[in-house]
Amino acid sequence: MNASRVSEETEIKVPVPDLAPVRARLADNGAARVSEVHDEMNILFDDADGRLASSNCALRVRHARGRGVVTWKGPASFEGAVKRREEIELEVPDPAAAERLLERIGFVPKFRYAKRREEFRCVGCLVALDETPIGAFVEIEGDPAAIAVAAAVLGLRHADAERRSYAGLYRRAREKDPSLPPDMLFRQ
């Protein structure tokens, strides 16, 4: 990734019972590995009044593979199952310093979520296999037509795509099981 990027994120996220069959289909279709399995820690920030969340925006600091990325995501719109939103990313050498900076200008950490992710390039899309504390998901990012092709190649249906963010999915999980901790973290 470049030091910074302004783009439109276009993706689908599909829950799956098991990532192994998807991994096998990626291999069968000559997908190129972009990253090995790695842990990610994501921290969502907002102001005290929750204005970003209430406007369907997000401000995130991600720790992954020894680096950090600060990301702002604009409001999402949907074309069928495909989510579109403006995304601005800035790579930072010290994600903890980025967190302190955000706190100094009035943002507070609101939600932490962990993932184990590996990434592939398949039929013109970036395919992420995510293991989370609430299940496994496949994210496919790219042009909408390419997303449809990649989903079909991987045996995934657009109808199964999840519109909620990981934060939204975890809120739903906590509604069903109030004993879950406030943040979506793997148990130690």
Number of strands: 9
Separate helix tally: 5
User: How far from one another are the termini?
Assistant: 31 Å
Describe the biggest sheet? 8 strands, antiparallel, barrel
CATH architecture: Beta Barrel
Strand-pairing-aware structural class:
alpha+beta
Supply Rg: 16 Å
Low-confidence stretches: none
- From the spread of the alpha carbons, the general shape counts as globular
Order of helices and strands: EHEHEEEEHEEEHH
- As for the number of domains, it is 1
Helix content: 10-25%
Give the spatial strand order of the biggest sheet.
1-6-4-3-2-7-8-9
CATH superfamily: Hypothetical Protein Pfu-838710-001
The fold-level CATH name is: Hypothetical Protein Pfu-838710-001
Q: What is the arithmetic mean of pLDDT?
A: 95
- Strand residue percentage: over 45%
CATH top-level class = Mainly Beta
Describe the structure using short key phrases.
188 residues; Hypothetical Protein Pfu-838710-001; eight-stranded antiparallel barrel
Element layout with pairings:
Blueprint: E1 4-16, H1 20-28, E2 32-46, H2 51-54, E3 58-64, E4 67-73, E5 77-79, E6 82-92, H3 95-104, E7 108-122, E8 125-132, E9 135-141, H4 144-153, H5 166-176
Antiparallel strand pairs: 1-6, 1-9, 2-3, 2-7, 3-4, 4-6, 5-6, 7-8, 8-9
Describe this structure as you would to a colleague.
- There is one protein chain.
- The protein has 188 residues and is of the alpha+beta class.
- It has one domain (4-176): Hypothetical Protein Pfu-838710-001, CATH 2.40.320.10.
- It contains 5 helices and 9 strands, in the order E-H-E-H-E-E-E-E-H-E-E-E-H-H.
- The protein has helices at residues 20-28, 51-54, 95-104, 144-153, 166-176, and strands spanning 4-16, 32-46, 58-64, 67-73, 77-79, 82-92, 108-122, 125-132, 135-141.
- Strands 1-6-4-3-2-7-8-9 form an 8-stranded antiparallel β-barrel.
- A hairpin with a 2-residue loop joins strand 3 and strand 4 (67-73).
- The longest helix is centred in the last third of the chain and has 11 residues, at 166-176.
- It is globular.
- The protein starts with a strand and ends in a 12-residue tail after the last helix.
